[in-house]
Amino acid sequence: MISIAVKAASDSYVPKKREFRGAWIQCVNGQFIGMSTQKMQQTLTYQLDELQKDGVNAIFFQVRAECDALYKSDIEPWSRFLTGQQGKAPSPYWDPLQWMIEQCHKRGMELHAWINPYRAKTKTTSALDPKHVAMKHPGWVFPYDGLFILNPGLPENRDYICRVVGDIVERYDVDGIHMDDYFYPYPVKGLNIPDDKEYALYNNGIRDRGDWRRDNVNVFIKQVSEHIHALKPWVKFGVSPFGIYRNKRPGVEIGSNTNGTQNYDDLYADVLLWVNNGWVDYNVPQIYWQIGHKAADYKTLIEWWNRYASARPLFIGEDVERTAKFADVDNPKINQMPAKYALHSSLPNVDGTVLWYAKAAVDNVGNYGTMLRQKYWRYPALQPRMPFIDGGAPKKPKKLKPIWTEDGLILFWTKPKGKKWNDEVKKYVVYRFSPGEKVNIENPARIVAITSDEFIKLPFVDGSTRYTYVVTALDRLSNESTGAKKKIKL
């Protein structure tokens, strides 16, 4: 890995006040198998603490890898990626999803429940619980290259996945439902998808098999989006598709100058349709390659997504290890992190980043975590606004008052009233301005904290310097109120 000194990076990077800063925490790699409850909680606590220091404000936590559950479910069995045996509950008992929601919210982070919609069995799973959907309804799945796939051509599978998603949304205070890049399976040479029967039954007059498969996924995405928002309008629905939509070639106008697997043609995922129709609330293409990659150049792809996928918030899936591994094309002494973040900063429709994967950032591969906390994500950031869900700001906090307590000087305030979900206050932003400094809450460098508490401890020195504190309120969609001001001598 090529490390990078903080001083070596360009100082042209301008921090954003609103930016999605996510990280994927996966179970499917087996990192938690066999861990005791205490050990897994310790591991996750450490990761969340380090990610918080890095500036991360959202976690994608994998809770359903193969029609299983890392949460209490009456629909699907406990995951073997948790206990080592599918259907076996953790002991001592705990609910990882509920625990992660509480831990993330305590740290001011969003928690998005990450599910794989169609995969019913991974290659390494050899035994399925009797409660598993493939055991109860073997006709609903098909085998493919060692996997079991819930057949996207069956309407009952769409309803089944929506039932699972609805169960999570209703019972847990998740901020989002997140789906990764596995729709129809990644193609394997010589293997055909066995869906002749379903195509004959449900083709709806669609003559092209590819168009029919895309329509199956389109109908599903629209259905699950509507289902989520009918239950809880504020819960965000997002996808993280493979990094290439289509390769440009004769007859393909909206394609990138790339040569690789394609969402549209190979996975039957028409991501641009979902974005442009508003069926997803955010989109995180996995642009895991390096700048200069011959088949899938990072710069080509991030510019392509910026141009064509701007109808919904666009976040970029970043591979931490590969970014650290490859040298900058203009300066071989440093890695590609500065060049990639310069691209993020320069492209107007890029609203954030999601790190693949969390542990790589926590382990500070190539100095990546250090660079986040000392430079790129040095200041706290609010979530990007989503006015298509809710654009109205809540009322501002009331009754700001500094009070001496046993713990020192504390600034207290009162939560404003909110009658509906879209004007209820969930968090606060605290800003601090020096004597004579103009109050400007658009400057992220002046953010002291983003907190769900209704107080903050003040750094009292000798009472000789007068600072201006401003506290604003945030609703569930991070719409921000006007500020309540208080001058305080510290």
Written account of the structure:
With 490 residues, the chain is of the alpha/beta class. The protein has helices spanning 37-54, 80-83, 96-106, 133-136, 155-171, 196-202, 209-231, 263-267, 271-276, 298-308, 320-325, 337-346, 358-362, 368-376, and strands spanning 20-25, 58-64, 110-115, 119-121, 141-144, 147-150, 176-179, 236-239, 282-283, 314-319, 350-356, 398-405, 408-414, 427-433, 447-451, 455-457, 466-474, 484-489. The strands form four sheets. Strands 9-8-7-3-2-1-11-10 form an eight-stranded parallel β-sheet. Strands 15-14-17-18 form a four-stranded antiparallel β-sheet, with no helix packed on it. A hairpin with a 2-residue loop joins strand 5 and strand 6. The relative contact order is 0.13. Residues 6-10 have low confidence and may be disordered.
